[in-house]
Amino acid sequence: MSARLSDAEVKQFRDEGYVCPVPVMDAAEARTLRAELEAFEATQGGKLEPAQRNKSHLLFKWLDDLIRDARVLDPVEQLIGPDILCWNTLFWIKEAGSESFVSWHQDTRYWGLSSNQVVTCWLALSPASRESGCMRVMPGTHVGDVMEHEDRYDENNMLTRGQEITHGLDEAKAVYMPLQTGQMSIHNYRLAHTSGPNTSGDRRIGVSMHFMPPDTGQIVGDWDSAALVRGTDPYGNFEHAPQIARDFDEAAVAFHVRATQANRDILYADAAHNTEKV
Ligand SMILES: O=C(O)CCC(=O)C(=O)O
To answer: What is 7-267's CATH superfamily?
Structure first.
């Protein structure tokens, strides 16, 4: 399966801030990854703990492999160049029939990253449809000033502080990004995006992978980490995360504790509450 983007897709990404769908693997392979995830969840009552959602490539070998997989990185390289760091991975799981949603937001507002070139690849491990609460984006919002956000702390909001863009969005211009199992979307992290509840009978399971060029700096936290997944890093702004040899590798688990704590410090830096969602 080739995930090379066409010239038109690269242009769309530059002009509108997103491209979707990008084929990564067939549905059967994606279902194998889902089965691995769910087998792990079953060992602890059927769900990931909040910290296990975050920087999860340090825990699960299949995910560490995925952030280094050419089928993911080739299109990313077309968009941000040959030297690539993976800053984070995050699971986005909406249970069947759940009210979980994601309010309109721009990730650039919260991640403390200096670059405009950070991209999110969001891979579907189950169907992401309008019914199951796929993402919706506002084309073109990746350029210009970051929009005003308000922390609303809605319990069903999957975002750390229920942050929400307060004005300046015309919902009529929003675009849905439905994905079949094994496809991904790619968006610039400055792009405003949202998603609704899952009214389907299956879990909506996605994993996002956040890639950036190595000239990116961390401007909120004193220390941060990222995995060098392609090329070289002449800047050294992030401590390199280890490549893991097996699930829950002891050294990587210790690194995960440090890395997720640093990540929480950044995400909640100016928040009124720590909602412990990651
Ligand atoms: O999974 C979702 O619905 C939202 C994901 C998201 O906000 C992101 O990947 O940046």
So the answer is: q2cbj1_9rhob like domain (2.60.120.620)
